Amino acid sequence: MTDKPLSGHVAVVTGAAKNIGREIALMLAGDGASVVINGRSDKAAAEVVAGEVEAMGAQAIVHMADVADPDQATGLIDAAVAHFGRLDILVVNAGMRRQNSIVDIPLEEWREVMTMDLESPFVLAKAAIPQMLKNGHGRVVTLGGTSAHTGNIGRAHVGAAKMGLLSLTRSIAVEFGPQGITANMVAPGHIDTVRGAAAGQRSNSGAGRPIERMGTTGEIAAMVRHLCRPEGAYITGQCIHVDGGIYLGGA
Q1: The pTM is what?
Q2: Distinct helix (H) and strand (E) counts, the chain
Q3: In the predicted model, is pLDDT for residue 193 greater than 90?
Q4: pLDDT tens digits along 200-215
Q5: What sign does the dihedral 119-120-124-125 (CA atoms) show?
Q6: Adjacent-strand bridge partners of 105
Q7: Which of these, 190, 142, 188, lies nearest to 166 by C-alpha position?
Q8: Is residue 48 part of a domain?
Q9: Which residues of 41-69 are buried (b: 16+ CB within 10 A; e: fewer)?
Q10: Which of 13, 143, 192, 206 counts the highest number of beta carbons within 10 A?
């Protein structure tokens, strides 16, 4: 492997202004990728990340978009191709957390979560995959969550959306694998991030996990980077749990 195995590749990272998304953008840039930094509202934070990428010697642009809006999601992909001339990597990191008992979730909130966490990745992938097909190569990485697999009080809508997203991810893997496109999900456990008030309290589903600490944003980003590197080319259709052992079985 070369020092810059992603040199010449272009990546779109949604929700890249902070937390896990920021770390992913920086790691991909460290491997030589040009990165489109997407944020929804905090342009200053997104520009800071773009500056960090450029300081590493890679290229970056900021494109603000609410990817829950189909036109803005498609516009994000279009902007990447217009600026860099190609697209190789799509990392679907942006998501929405809400917390309510099943019996208290308003239908509007259910639909809001489904739009952001399931419909938006579909729209982004639908726009991105044709660009990857032109290259005969592509990487789609979605971010899930361990609690979607274990069940979680208060987040039935988030879990349902993320499991739907896993099915979408696997469908991309099956349909486009012959054309050189891989698709995988990384499912974080308890990660030390800054969370908005609407996300509610942290889940306790990881109580008693074998690794008795919270994970770091870098540990999630490192797995995403691995899937995007050449040595990740034979991994597809997988859900990789980076969770300290919360979820030891299955899917």
Answers
A1: 0.92
A2: 8, 7
A3: no
A4: 455 544 556 788 788 9
A5: negative
A6: none
A7: 142
A8: yes
A9: eeeebbbbbbebbeeeebbbbbbbbbbbe
A10: 13
